[in-house]
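User: Fold this; tokens only.

Assistant: Input:
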Amino acid sequence: MLIWEKIISFLLAGAIVVALGYVLIIQKKIPIESAPAQQTEVVAQNNASTTTEEERGSEVEKPIFTSTTTSTPSAPVNNIPATTTAKQAPPKIVVPEKIEVPVLPENKLVSPTSTPENATPKLPPEIAINHQTVVGLLCKFDLTIKDQVSDKLIAQGEVESKGSGVIVSADGKILTNRHVVKKEGGIQSTIIDGSNVSGNFTYSLKQCLVGVVPPNTTLPTPDEIRAVNPLVMVTVLPYTASVEKISLSVGLSDLEKQYADFALLKINGVSADGPTFGYSSVPASFPYAKIIPINGVMPPGQQVITFGFPGDIGAARNDSFSTMYLSGSLGNVKEVYVGDVYYASTPLVIATNMEIYRGRSGSPLFWRGYIVGLVASYSSNNSQQNRTESFSVASDAILKSFNLP
């Protein structure tokens, strides 16, 4: 009997444990069973959020610089208009650009100048080219983009462009192309953060940084240019410059406006990087290149040379956009042309067979060591856009507009 009592007691104890375990399981099932309801609610919230983002899809695809408010925007903050969307303000636009030599339509210049057959032009004495007269230019423009219909601000920022130039006076005047320092605005488009932005573009030149060739540099010889065309690196742009004069357009024919592409800058200060590299002030006097007229002096067939800072050359992995490389180019004069109105009796264009594929806007054209022009454009009168059919603004046209030593 004692044995059966023990068995019954054991079974009762087991039943109690099972019952308690069942109760515990049931109690634990309450939060477990309620979790899907909570999870469903969370998913619903997430779905609602996803739906909202999908509804904003068109807004997200818009350029982040575009204002989404329908009210008049307040003063721009961080260079973008105020918007009703709580977006983080994008950084200021800084768009580096490589100034390309313009491609002009088929050459329609007429009345080439020539030297009478019985006359022998008196050639000027040959002089050496001073390497410190050729400079690189990194010009910074303020850019404003507005809606072409409502005139509301879409975006604004800064654009940087490279070019070349040559010092032509002891007080630091620099000759370059007009299109280096004056960017044409109007209805344009660009890519900002992967989105296409269109509108009315307005450019305003802030300043140009001026890069100089290091002292004791030897310019490549014609033979070296033909063989390997070595590069000269310029890592510091120690000076600043502003525009002093731009070639006139009033009184010029449409043809002359295309080719009269020149401007004059003036070195006016030291850049922020200048003191770091030993440039603490603007020199009292700069070495400069001599510009001479060519009318009746330079016959076709003469060899010309140019040195400049093409915008698309980068020789080192860590090059920044402000790192410049000077390179040379050789060619021969094919013909010299005059204009048809204002420059009707003045050499305006020097046609050469000099290769300018890499872009040499504002590079000085040297003949016998003198400046005789500025590299300005190449022809597009064939399907290959032969960049060896190039044109420079003649020195005579420049001297007619600017009073230079």
